[in-house]
Amino acid sequence: MTIKSHSLRILGFCTPLGLAASLFLAGCGDGSGGGGGGAGDTIKVGEFASLTGKEATFGQSSHNGTQIAVDEINAAGGLAGKKIKLLTEDTQSKAGESQTVVNKLVSRDGVIAVLGEVASSRSMEAAPVCQAAKIPMISPSSTNPKVTETGDYIFRVCFIDPFQGTVMANFAAKDLKAKRVAVFTDAKSDYSKGLAKFFKEQHLKNGGEIVAELDFNGGDSDFNAQLTTIKAAKPEAIFLPGYYTDAAVICIQAKQLGITVPLFGGDGWESEKLVEIGKDAVEGQYFSTHYHPDVGSDKSRQFVAAYKRAYGSAPDAMAALGYDSMMVLADAIKRCGSTDSTKIRDALAATKDYDAVTGKITINAQRDATKAAVIIKVEKGEFKYVETIAP
Amino acid sequence: MTEFLQQILNGLALGAIYALIALGYTMVYGVLRFINFAHSDIFMLGAFSGFYLEKLFARYFASAFPPQSITAAIIIMLLSMAICAALGVAIEYLAYRPLRKRPRLTVLITAIGVSLFIEYTCQHPAVFGPSPQAFPKLLPEQTLNLGGVVMSSNQVVIFVVTGILLVLLTFIVQRTKVGMAMRAVSFNERAAALMGVNVDRIVSFTFALGSALAAAGGILFAIKYQKIEPLMGVQMGLKAFVAAVLGGIGNLPGACLGGLVLGLVESAVGGVARLSTYRDGVAFAFLIAVLLFRPDGLLGKATKEKV
User: Fold this and answer.
1) Distance to chain A for B194, nearest Cα, Å
2) What pLDDT digit, counting tens, does each position of B48-70 carry?
């Protein structure tokens, strides 16, 4: 009775409110039209990011990068004489929030395009809203293939998990020389499940063996039970495709349980919080990501300098991709010379060899970018570049 | 076999923290017959008090109490318990006391309100902010290897502290005058008042005691898991509540037993591939199964409903 009332308060209050809000907003949108963002002397671009919560550093980095791009474009006179106005909404790293805030951006604010999110689950939540309103959406760093499968208005400027999973499986085989690998997946995250699946496929193809497969719920605190089972299976390495908060806590508990084999993951690990929470437990672990400030083109060096001037620290991959997402959009608007959503969409789809911070971006038929991945090792609390793996 | 023993140890370590929180739920229920939902947030506030006190100590009292020393850890823990005891008393005074003569449902809903108020206030960037924080190491950590079964020294600390607090609590409730008064209020509030027991003061004391236990639980949790956030109490609180009901709500040893049993069930299920994500579900199903056969929990006494 009492448990019921405690959880009912969530179901009972939030769902109708959220539903009502989205219905109301969707209703507004029909009247005002989606293309109003280009009218006047500004171009409105929407952004949704996890500025707070469990994946806060992702959203903040991504937003900082995007903001630098907007500032650069505006300082150079804007696009076709119009300044860009970035409208940013916080998703609080929560399920359900993305749809609400993107609805607001699209329907009430009338943005011409939407940039976001880092986490695949949240991008997949917002994508149908943008697709239905025919507003182009560019995800800076969601890697689950399903994100752009929603429809022809959904793009991304990063690689996808089949590639990342393959890279990590090859890395496990060649560099870690690990045949017996355990996989520990976040059952709540589409990103984690997708990456685990593609890793397993390639690992088995490489002649490897999956000795244990366990799940956790992202946000839990106790992983000892699963890790004990993993330890008993005697793996040579543990693949942990998750986000940094969980990854840090899992590394701590693995260390406490006396697990000495390396743990490695994907781009979800890249955050200073990984080191802050995980401390010595994440030392010597590996992950793959999109970009490292130490290696890259002139464009990358300029971006690193601008980012350091603005925020006093080197950018991470999420920041670089945030910057690229805005720049790719600006490039498309320049090429089509219009703020009409359909024309922008067509121009985005035709993006070819665009020289971005994270490498050359060509949008393929699935509206994904084909790009190289970098492998990073945690060393003395810093992210050290190991190698670049081309697609 | 080592794996089995390790899982039992994991379960007991998790259960010990559930037990500490469950004691607070069960004690307030025993005295006032209502569930203090804000208890799980006191647990969180205890961890955050420890977090900020540690910073304070490292900055101003590093010479007298060096960081990661046992004295510093004990003082931080006691101070956090005192802070939370005061908060618990304040919550009771401001939110529950004015409603004590109202129907119990009113107080229950108020408790949920207080809980949400604390959770969302603390998530504001000006308070703690919603992002997880790394909890500093209060004690140097060592790994103990007992013939293949691995145990962190922090785990030992959790068992010892939980054990001490349990004995202390039992002593207070069973052997002291104030404990006798608590039991009297629990038995019959009006009769106790007629016998000269200051009910308000006893209720305040109950809240102080329960909140101090929650704070201790919060710090032990933070020492073990090294990550704290404003919503950390939600899941733990719900589990501890289940533990309290499982053991028989209102019954102190029952809360401990419930906590340990729940921890063991979760560890057993969590270690099985393909079942690991269902461990919360299995834990709740276990509660339902127990309540079907023993509606008053494992150690609860059957009570007749007064009409």
Assistant:
1) 32
2) 999 999 999 989 988 888 888 88
Separation of CA A129 from chain center? 18
Is A46 a residue whose pLDDT tops 70? yes
Compute CA distances A269 → A252, A330, B60, B129, whole Å.
14, 29, 35, 21
Closest CB to B130 among A56, A224, A249:
A56
Of all helices (H) and strands (E), which one includes residue A184?
strand A180-186
Minimal CA separation from A190 to chain B, in Å: 15
Interface test with A, best of B149, B224, B227 (most A CBs within 10 A): B227
Which residues in chain B have Cβ-Cβ distances shorter than 8 Å to A53?
Answer: 130-131
Pairing of strands A373-379, A286-289: antiparallel
Q: Report the distance separating Cα B198 and Cα A40, nearest Å.
A: 71
Q: Searching chain A, which residue's CA lies closest to the CA of residue B153?
A: A256
Residues of A in contact with B225 (CB under 8 A): 221-222, 249, 252-253
Is the ipTM, as predicted for this complex, more than 0.95? no
How far apart CA A55 and CA A49 sit, in angstroms, is 10
Q: Helices A190-205 and A120-133, interaxial angle, to 10°?
A: 110
Query: Chain A within 8 Å of B68 (Cβ-Cβ)?
Result: no
Per-residue confidence (pLDDT) for residue B64, from 0 to 100: 81
Nearest-10 crossing angle of helices A224-232, B2-32: 170
**pTM (global) more than 0.90:** no
Judged by CB atoms closer than 8 Å, whether chains meet at A222 and B10 is answered as yes
Q: What is the number of H-type helices and E-type strands within chain A? A: 13, 14
pLDDT of A25 above 70? no
| Residue in B227, B266, B271 closest to A245 by CB | B227
Q: Tell me the pLDDT tens digit for each residue of A329-370.
A: 999 999 998 889 999 999 999 999 999 999 889 999 999 998
Contacts of A214 in chain B (CB under 8 A): 273, 276
In chain B, where are the structural domains located?
20-230
Q: Do B11 and A225 touch (CB under 8 A)?
A: yes
H or E element: which one contains B18?
helix B2-32
Residues A144-168 have pLDDT tens digits of 999 999 999 999 999 999 999 999 9
Q: How far apart are CA A71 and CA A83, in angstroms?
A: 9
